[in-house]
Amino acid sequence: MDFFESGVLGKIFDADGTAMQKDSRTCPQPEGKFPPETPIAMAYVPFQSWEKPYDMEAGLSRGTIFPSLDKPFLGKEAVFCDND
Amino acid sequence: MTMTDKQRAMRKVQATAFALVEANLYLDSHPTCPKGLEYFAEHKKAHDKAVKEYEEKYGPLTARASDNPRKWEWVVTPFPWERGES
After folding, report:
1. Mutate which of A56, A57, A68 to test chain B, going by most B C-beta atoms within 10 A?
2. Do B30 and A57 touch (CB under 8 A)?
3. Residue A52 needs a FRET pair 20 to 30 A away by CA distance; which of A19, A68, B9, B30 works?
4. Among B18, B34, B31, B5, which residue's Cα sits nearest to residue A55?
């Protein structure tokens, strides 16, 4: 049992692979919609699909015709909270 | 600020051109998307019409749009950026 298995790390990274799987299932993580075989530590960008575009004038001034791409820089974190 | 007819005509050219750029980028990654293709076809017509209407009244937007048999319009009329639109 070297340092990794016995010490603090030992609690986080269980040496026995299967237990690790069980732990990652049980520890409270946001439930993503990724298929189970999706490898971790990779970046994924959801694929864009068609949507009702802005009319041309609005598109020109907003810089995109797709509402879901219309993400202006707000200078603060864009979180949907109802108090501001 | 009220727009002159010329500015309105130029704005239409710009808006339709931009719509085509957006549709182009979308279609690059969705080459068979029917809605995207339909959007492009529709706005291509609108853009060609807007360009035609503008050029008939205010002169060529590009050199190759000069079509006066007696003079090269592109240099004898003010350039698009000199026509006080922008």
Report:
1. A56
2. no
3. B9
4. B18
Cα(B52)–Cα(B46) distance, rounded to whole angstroms?
Answer: 10
Tokens of residue A55, six digits: 């009319």
Residue written as tokens 């090269």?
Answer: B72
- Which residue blocks in chain A are alpha helix, DSSP H? 3-6, 8-12, 17-26, 56-62
Cα(B79)–Cα(B5) distance, rounded to whole angstroms? 17
Q: What is the ipTM of this complex?
A: 0.82
Q: Could you read off the pLDDT tens digit of each residue along chain A, which spans 84 residues?
A: 455 555 555 555 544 444 444 455 566 766 667 888 989 899 988 899 999 999 999 999 999 999 999 999 988 887 777 665
Q: How many residues does chain B have?
A: 86
